[in-house]
Design a protein that fits this description.
The chain is built from twelve helices and 14 strands. By secondary structure, it is of the alpha+beta class. It has two domains: about 160 residues, Creatinase/prolidase N-terminal domain (Creatine Amidinohydrolase, Chain A, domain 1, 3-Layer(aba) Sandwich); about 270 residues, Alpha-Beta Complex (Creatine Amidinohydrolase). Strand 13 and strand 14 form a beta hairpin. Splits dipeptides with a prolyl residue in the C-terminal position. Its cofactor is Mn(2+).
Length: about 425
């Protein structure tokens, strides 16, 4: 790992220490305790579900698989890291990397799951309810109020240079997977083989992905969170949608690409290109003090123009937006905050922690913030041919070219997604 990244991480921990000390002072606590969480067993089974460390814990250590462990943060003292590392011949105990950040955190290896010692008035965050009763009884700390958690969520909304570097590398690794997925599609693979090609090229196992990869061929590309992988390749290849990511030191890439297949109508290829241009145009509008809700609305205006330009809608772009046509073709939001979680925290809150819900006409929008330097967001316009959403419009007098829409139904849909940092002067697109 590069010296530069290590130095950025040390600066990141100094930044967190200072910020947490401010939270402790504001709410009158001496210690803040963070529980890492742990995997739960499937119901009536002895096998555990997949797991990722609690985001506020990962914020300090950058490790996504730490379980049954604790961090104790106090003013003017090194963070105390109580690492659960039992002697075990069934599983390999957690092993920490030999990296400089361990010099600024005191590590205590614990062979038993236990509550950490704390001093003074303490507050705890994390899934404490899932710990054993004896740990809950031994833990001398108050459960954090919503205000404390929201203050820490707000801290995560703004990424340090270390976090941006991690997100950039996660994007780099994920794009290798996307290139391999496209190559597998060209080679006439089925969804499962495309998924395996993605995992191999991005160098990760399926249980480590930040979210379940969406690999949708043909009509499956129109299922927004398609969750299966067909084993057999289809006889005709109209389209491939790949929404897939990668973690790096806990930080998530979330990238989507759509590819036209050899059997797709020519207009579908044109629409894929148009969505790339739409995405790029929206990204150029990102700068400090821009409303993400307004960017979302501009996406719909641009999508209306795309529908008109390609003869899918025979009215005006303004009419396509005002009559709800663009919402039927793109029911999701423009994007969301990105970080240690794919849909990162605080996206639907004002800086003071109060609620900032999505507009009623765009209920799926996951980010309503005014953009500020240090925020990282996704930009993911879409254009889908989903019968459930479009069929109600068939009974209206809206000038939709249903002949063309029906030709495109077999393609499912299009989504193009990049990950973007808001900078002091504009934006930095992390997706190569």
């Amino acid at each position: 790992m590069s010296t530069t990244l290590f130095n950025l991480q040390l600066d990141h921990i100094v930044h967190l220490q200072h910020a947490y000390e401010q939270v402790l002072a504001k709410y009158g606590f001496d210690s803040l305790v963070i529980y890492s969480g742990h995997a739960s067993h499937h119901f009536a089974d002895d096998h555990a579900t997949s797991f990722q460390t609690y985001g506020h814990f990962m914020h300090w250590v950058g490790l996504a698989d730490i379980q049954h462990s604790w961090l104790v943060i106090q003013s003017g003292k090194k963070p105390q890291f109580y690492l659960h590392a039992p002697a075990d011949f069934w599983h390999q105990p957690t092993q920490l990397p030999d990296e400089p950040w361990l010099s600024v955190i005191d590590v205590h290896q614990c062979t038993q799951a236990l509550a950490p010692p704390v001093e003074g008035r303490s507050v705890v965050i994390g899934d404490i309810a899932s710990t054993t009763p004896d740990i809950q009884q031994a833990l001398n700390a108050e459960t954090a109020s919503n205000e404390v958690v929201r203050a820490l969520d707000e801290l995560r909304m703004f990424k340090t240079p270390y976090e941006v570097a991690c997100l950039r590398e996660a994007n780099h690794l994920a794009m290798a997977g996307h290139e391999a997925a496209q190559a597998a599609f060209i080679g006439a693979s089925g969804e499962l083989d495309i998924q395996l090609a993605y995992l191999a090229a991005s160098r990760q196992r399926e249980s480590s992905v930040p979210y379940q990869n969406i690999i949708g061929l043909n009509g499956h590309a129109g299922v927004l969170h398609y969750q299966h992988y067909d084993i057999t390749p289809p006889s005709q290849r109209y389209s491939l949608l790949v929404d897939a990511g990668r973690r790096f030191r806990g930080y998530c890439a979330d990238i989507t690409r759509t590819h036209a297949g050899p059997d797709a109508p020519a207009i579908f290829k044109e629409l894929v290109t148009a969505l790339h241009h739409l995405k790029d145009d929206i990204i150029t509008r990102i700068e400090p003090d821009t409303s993400f809700v307004e960017l979302h609305q501009q996406m719909h205006q641009a999508l209306g123009s795309v529908l008109v330009a390609h003869d899918i809608f025979k009215g005006t772009g303004e009419q396509a937006v005002s009559e709800g046509v663009t919402r039927a073709f793109c029911p999701h939001g423009l994007g969301h905050s990105l970080g240690l979680q794919v849909h990162d925290v605080a996206g639907l809150r004002h800086p003071d922690g109060s609620a900032a819900p999505a507009p009623s006409e765009h209920p799926a929008l996951r980010l309503t913030r005014i953009l500020k330097p240090g925020m990282v967001v996704t930009v993911e316009p879409g254009l889908y041919f989903i019968p459930m959403l479009l069929n109600p419009l068939r009974d209206t007098s809206l000038p939709i070219n249903w002949t063309l829409v029906d030709q495109l139904m077999s393609c499912g849909g299009i989504r193009i997604e990049d990950n973007v940092v808001v900078t002091e002067n504009g934006y930095d697109n992390l997706t190569p």
